[in-house]
Amino acid sequence: MKKFNVSLVGGGSTWTPGLLTSLCKLKDRFPINRLVLFDIDKERQETIGNYAKVLFNEKYPELDFRYTTKVEEAYIDVDFVIMQMRTGGYKMREKDEKIPLSLGVIGQETCGAGGFAYGLRSIRDMIKTIRDIRKYSKDAWILNYTNPAAIVAEALRREFPEDKRVLNICDQPVNLLRSYGRVLGKDSKNFEPVYFGLNHFGWFTNLYDENGNDLVPELRKVIKEKGFIPVDAEQRDKSWLDTYAMVQDMVNDFPEYLPNTYLQYYYYPDYKVSHLNPDYTRANEVMEGREKRVFEECRRVAKAGTVEGSVMVHNDAHSEFMIEVAESIAYNLKKIYIVIVKNNGIISNLDDDVMVEVASVMTANGPRPLAVGKIPTFYKGLIESQSAYEKLTVDAYFEGSYEKALQALTLNRTIVSAKKAREVLDKLIEANKEFWPEFK
Ligand code: NAD
Ligand code: G6P
Ligand code: MN
User: Fold this and answer.
1) Tell me: the pLDDT tens digits for 395-416?
2) Does residue 175 have its Cβ closer than 6 Å to ligand 1?
């Protein structure tokens, strides 16, 4: 069995220990020769690197493991690069959430004005990093989790149009599939989904079981009657439970398809704003929760010198999805995964150059998306306006255009008013001086 060299960008991410744990668990399916963690933050990288040394010493002793802050060490002779970076860190995420909320519009990591702000920060670093990777490893598969994935995918499509080995993915469809499994008391591994939309902006139209029965009608019924919770509800913070609970409202209003949880911000912007606290947002919850927990546990394990008894609570769906996508590419398994690809007729009544999220057969040559066909007017209208917002955001980045930025935010359903859009934009420009291109 061929063994692969893997690098992880954003090696100091809060998701890294979970991913490393899953790499150990799945090492017979996706065996690694060399693993390099790369981060620009030496301290974060070292803390997680020292934890990883202890983990691998016990669980993966044959692995050649390194961690670094040097580009050349990270990207030489690598087969798969996994990316999960956050330009500006949680401190900037906090601003993305709080600035819009303080002005009465949605402030969220990837949706609305917050996602816009984060997108304009991510593009620059993502482009630089992919150039760095390509300097050393021309053919490496680049599997990207970095958010906001919709905007990152659109920017990378434009900057690297010939590069067929950059794939943007999101774990939320898998989180939902596993949660459907919990609701129905079935193993989601046997589900075959039909899904369409944009990243954090999509719907399940069908969900087939191993016998070809569509489970959507039953799921719809159960969600309407009993509500909806995540598969790992016991480990979730309150804001995530609130988010999953909103699926019931969405299914009541639009029962046709099962919505991605992120649609709550677009269906109910005013309601969500009135239920979000502008002084304490998800960024605060994460900084006081996951970030603290993960780094404390890494330090504890490094000191103890053993992972024995260590409980690193993590989202299996997130880490296993990434590894399974890599595995399916590595061994041409042709398994079906929901990923972000260029439309090219998949949704037949939508422009070809939209980056859509759909079910695809994952082959050694990457995703071969499954046809969706024509989508109904409601979804088409929503997707076209959201896609125009995404494209204008990326235009604003490449052209340094204030006008395009203003158009983007005005089109976003969470904002709508051009006066509000200008107000939010001006405050975000002030807060993002260090990261954004200069707007003319
Ligand atoms: P985090 O801040 O804990 O981790 C990000 C790490 O990236 C930090 O250690 C930081 O120093 C590092 N970093 C920043 N800029 C970098 C650069 N230019 N090069 C290399 N490293 C850099 O954040 P997190 O919450 O753990 O999330 C990490 C990323 O994964 C975010 O972009 C997040 O949105 C994304 N994510 C995406 C999905 C998805 O569904 N696509 C799911 C989970 C997380
Ligand atoms: C889901 C989404 C990701 C997002 C993450 C946020 O997994 O698919 O895109 O980054 O949730 O989680 P957090 O716990 O940081 O709010
Ligand atoms: Mn996502």
Assistant:
1) 999 999 999 999 999 999 999 9
2) no
In a domain? residue 415: no
Atom of ligand 1 minimally distant from the CA of 11 = 9
DSSP label at 370? P
Asked, for residue 416, whether it belongs to a domain, the answer is: no
Query: In this structure, what is the dihedral angle of CA atoms 296, 302, 304, 309, given to the nearest 10 degrees?
Result: 70
Q: Are 394 and 158 in contact (CB under 8 A)?
A: yes
Looking at the DSSP bridge assignments, the partners of residue 259 are 203
Give ∠ CA 312-15-21 in degrees, rounded to 5. Answer: 50
Helical segments of 364-417, H only: 377-399, 402-411
What percent of the chain is predicted at pLDDT more than 90? 98
What average pLDDT does range 219-241 have in this prediction? 97
| Annotated active-site residue in 79, 96, 171, 395 | 171
pTM given for the model: 0.98
How do strand 258-259 and strand 201-208 relate by DSSP bridges?
Answer: antiparallel
In the reported structure, the alpha carbon of residue 110 is separated from the centroid of ligand 2 by a whole-number distance in angstroms of 9
Q: Domain count of the chain?
A: 1
Q: Which of 341, 413, 314, 350 is nearest to 116 (CA)?
A: 413
* In a domain? residue 417: no
| Active-site residue flag, 51 | no
CATH at residue 43: 3.40.50.720
Query: In angstroms, rounded to a whole number, what is the distance separating the alpha carbons of residues 374 and 319?
Result: 33
Neighbours of ion ligand 3 (CB under 5 A): 170, 172
With a 6 Å cutoff on the Cβ, whether 146 touches ligand 1 is yes
The amino acid sitting at 412 is: N
Domain containing 79: what range? 4-169+283-317
Q: Is residue 407, in this structure, part of any structural domain at all?
A: no
